[in-house]
Design brief:
The complex is a heterodimer of chains A (374) and B (345). A 6-stranded mixed sheet of chain A has the order 4-3-2-1-5-6, sandwiched between helices. In chain A, strands 7, 8, 9, 10, 16 and 19 form a 6-stranded mixed sheet that branches. Chain A has a 5-stranded antiparallel sheet with strand order 12-11-13-17-18. With 374 residues, chain A is α+β, with helices and mostly antiparallel strands. Chain A has helices at residues 7-19, 35-40, 85-99, 115-125, 134-141, 146-169, 176-189, 249-268, 275-288; strands at 24-29, 50-55, 58-64, 78-82, 104-108, 129-132, 194-202, 222-231, 234-235, 238-244, 304-306, 313-316, 330-333, 337-339, 343-345, 348-349, 351-353, 358-360, 369-371. In chain A, strand 14 (337-339) and strand 15 (343-345) form a beta hairpin. The termini of chain A are far apart. The mean pLDDT of chain A is 95. Chain B has 345 residues and is an alpha+beta fold. Chain B has 10 helices and 14 strands. In chain B, the strands form 3 sheets. Chain B has a 6-stranded mixed sheet, with helices on both faces. A 5-stranded antiparallel sheet of chain B has the order 11-10-12-13-14, covered by helices on one side. Chain B has a 3-stranded antiparallel sheet with strand order 7-8-9, with helices on one face. The longest helix of chain B is centred in the middle third of the chain and has 21 residues, at 158-178. Chain B is globular, with a radius of gyration of 21 Å. The model of chain B has no long low-confidence stretch (mean pLDDT 92). At the A-B interface, helix 3, helix 4, helix 7 and strand 7 of A face helix 5, helix 8, strand 7 and strand 11 of B.
Chain lengths: 374, 345
């Protein structure tokens, strides 16, 4: 087998299988979530559904035809196709039976699997039991290896380039969806396979971000985005805000609070601190300015999160999350929330947790951008 | 993740049309003696809830509770800060934030005394969500209600075909703007141009596959393309997907392809027969997909047949002439497959 760059990852997965007394590991992905599938089969597949079956000494990818004719990736020796999703599930079960795998088959990513597929799989598996394994695989995913970090750094570089397109597009009269269209085209051209992107524009009436609308930008708007390109399965995120035209005093003052909160998070991040401590460091800045109430769930979702094969990966940075941060994790602390000064605002950078602190992965200047001048 | 323009324009799809869909589904509930139905929605399976309410989750998931009488309620794993957007892009008025939409939906149904609850389009609901529903429905029974699937399936009525034609024009215009050849460009550059152009033309979502002639196209990898390359572009407009496939560097005879594929995959004919006939004619490989649950397309098996009222995509690759690829989207009518966008549009 030519596992190449993934030898160490697969060794850790197979050690987990042994520790958990699993006879095999089945990972599932669909258009909603493919992260567990991509962990063991890093190459992207156009098939809407996919399974990867890992045994102690081999691997097989199961996808919809005709995509089974694409080249096998480095972690599997065989690609099996079927014309329908149910057929794919049946092929998985047939392989499990043929290999005599059992009685415990670990199953990761099954939380999003449709009941139609689940029923087909269970019906044809026979006596082999599907043992939930998402948590065990997630435990392996928290800390990124060198290959994963390389992908995240490339995604971060694309986020930095994409932001330039974002800034160049934001002019009075431009509809929100045009911003997305131009940024999407650019990041695809640069090699991103996907991009999680939400945005908003306006002033104090803006409470959150959504997909783009046809609202046209106006001079004086704040325009904000979470920009999250995906490369080789891995996401990096950049949160930035800009003003259309010169920033007002309120926008500047608001941004200064967000910047200070993000800086407080960066100063806090190191191995051993908890997700709660990072969130609290951000929130303390808002509280000191008299805006503590805007750090609650009424105004903000989270104060940041991890990144990896999912754009919203565990752990969330939130005051009740006691997860201890580890070296090698990639996080985005982002104190994004509503403030009455200038409405919802976002600011954050992807960071790698090092042995002593953290390293910025995104390189975009950490400022409030002003756009819209021709 | 959906990040195109997701808006509801009542001029394209009226509130009355959406209300009639809800009423029709509630009629099915009454006929079956069901107190309510639940429908699941996510980026992967948005179809039934989109059909009934026009709501499309840009990410995450939700569960819609549709009582036999009255307004539907959506439990969704999104912040209440985006509820104005949800209500502005759908007919929904009762929206509730939930980390476990299945459990919370069941609790609401229990509070309302629902005894028999139907799973709408149960095959599309994650097993986990069905377990949450069953575990939390106090005193009630969750039953499969296969009939509901037909009442919420996107199909080929006049409104839908109009939206589908708009999607087809978006794809056609983006492909035309590519020019006759992509020689010397990377697959990523081609995908970027197509993606951007379709979104600029108000596409809700896109899926672009590109690859050199000689193999089925895949997700871009940065590979430089030669004189001939295959492109499959799928585009969604207001919940309606179309698929278009072309070979760059080869001038497709669109009318001839549409006629051939329309005959091969005629309503009532099994897909396996269509595929065998195409192989026998000139070695062409044929795949047939049905659009139904709002996901791009679902592949039909060899034993399945296209039914009148379906919207289907047919993707074919001819072995001859250097391996030309062609794909198109059709409405299945009693007298055959009609292209969503005819060759002479």
């Amino acid at each position: 087998m030519n596992e190449g760059r993934y030898t160490e990852r697969l060794r850790r997965v197979r050690q987990m299988m042994a520790d958990q007394q699993l006879d095999g590991l089945l990972c599932y992905g669909n258009p909603f979530r493919k992260d567990f599938l991509r962990y063991v089969h890093p190459a992207p597949t156009p098939s809407p559904y996919g399974f990867c079956l890992l045994t102690p000494d081999g691997g097989t990818l199961f996808v919809e035809a005709p995509w089974d004719t694409l080249p096998a990736a480095e972690t599997v020796q065989e690609v099996v196709g079927a014309r329908t999703a149910a057929g794919v599930a049946q092929a998985v079960a047939a392989k499990v039976r043929r290999l005599g795998l059992g009685p415990r088959l670990g199953f990761a990513g099954g939380e999003v699997m449709e009941s139609e597929l689940s029923g087909t799989l269970r019906e044809h598996l026979g006596p082999t039991a599907l043992v939930p394994a998402s948590k065990a695989v997630m435990e392996l995913r928290y800390v990124k290896d060198a290959v994963e970090l390389e992908a995240i750094r490339r995604a971060a570089a694309i986020a930095d380039e994409g932001w330039k397109t974002f800034v160049a597009t934001c002019k009075p009269g431009v509809p929100q969806y045009e911003i997305t269209a131009r940024c999407e085209g650019r990041v695809r051209e640069l090699g991103a396979e996907d991009n999680f992107m939400i945005l908003s524009s306006g002033t104090r009436d803006v409470y959150g971000m959504t997909p783009p609308s046809s609202r046209r930008l106006e001079r004086g708007d704040s325009v904000l985005t979470e920009f999250t390109p995906q490369v080789d399965g891995y996401y990096a995120q950049l949160c930035r805000s800009l003003t259309v035209g010169p920033a007002s005093a309120e926008q500047r003052r608001s941004f200064a609070i967000f910047k200070a909160a993000a800086d407080a998070a960066l100063a806090m991040i190191k191995p051993g601190v908890t997700a709660a401590e990072i969130a609290n460091a951000e929130n303390a800045v808002f509280a000191a300015e008299g805006y503590g109430e805007y750090c609650t769930a009424q105004y903000t979702r989270v104060r940041g999160h991890a990144l990896g094969l999912h754009f919203d990966e565990e752990p969330m940075l939130w005051p009740d999350v006691d997860f201890e941060i580890r070296a090698g994790m990639v996080l985005i602390p982002h104190p994004n929330t509503y403030l009455p000064l200038a409405g919802y605002m976002v600011f954050g950078d992807s960071v790698l947790v090092t042995e002593t602190g953290c390293e910025l992965i995104t390189r975009t200047p950490r400022i409030l951008f002003e756009a819209g001048e021709s | 993740m959906k990040r195109g323009l997701i808006e509801w324009d009542p001029n394209e799809l009226s509130a009355a049309t959406l209300a009639a869909r809800v009423a029709r589904t509630q009629g099915v509930l009454a006929e079956r003696g069901l107190d309510a139905a639940v429908f699941y929605t996510s980026v992967a399976q948005p179809g039934p809830v989109r059909y009934l309410t026009h709501f499309l989750p840009y990410w995450n998931e939700g569960v819609l509770v549709l009582p036999r009488e009255g307004e539907p309620t959506l439990f969704v794993a999104l912040s209440n800060r985006v509820f104005p957007w949800i209500k502005g892009s759908s007919t929904l008025r009762d929206v509730r934030a939930s980390r476990n939409p299945g459990a919370d939906a069941a609790k609401l149904l229990g509070e309302r005394g629902a005894m028999r609850v139907g799973l709408g389009d149960s095959g599309s609901i994650p097993y986990r969500v069905i377990e949450e529903l069953r575990a939390n429905l106090a005193g009630g029974q969750v039953v499969d209600a296969a009939e509901l699937a037909a009442s919420v399936r996107l199909g080929a009525d006049a409104d839908e075909l109009c939206l589908r034609a708009r999607a087809a024009r978006i794809a056609a215009e983006a492909l035309a703007a590519l020019g006759p050849s992509a020689a010397g460009r990377t697959d990523s550059a081609v995908a970027g141009q197509l993606d951007g152009a379709m979104r600029l033309n108000r596409a809700e979502d896109t899926l672009v596959l590109v690859g050199p002639a000689g193999r089925w196209p895949g997700l871009p990898t940065g590979e430089t393309l030669g004189e001939r390359a295959h492109v499959v572009a799928q585009v969604e407009y207001k919940g309606h997907w179309v698929l278009v496939g072309r070979t760059l560097g080869a001038a497709a005879d669109v009318a001839a392809w549409q006629a051939r594929l329309g005959t091969l995959a005629a309503p009532g004919r099994r897909v396996g027969e269509s595929a065998a006939a195409a192989r026998a004619e000139d070695g062409t490989e044929v795949y047939v997909y049905r659009s139904g649950r709002g996901a791009p397309f679902t592949a039909l098996g060899e034993g399945d047949a296209v039914a009148v009222g379906d919207v289907v995509a047919v993707l074919a690759r001819r072995a001859a002439d250097g391996g030309e690829l062609y794909g198109d989207t059709f409405a299945a009518e009693p007298d055959g497959l009609r292209p969503i966008l005819a060759a002479d549009h």
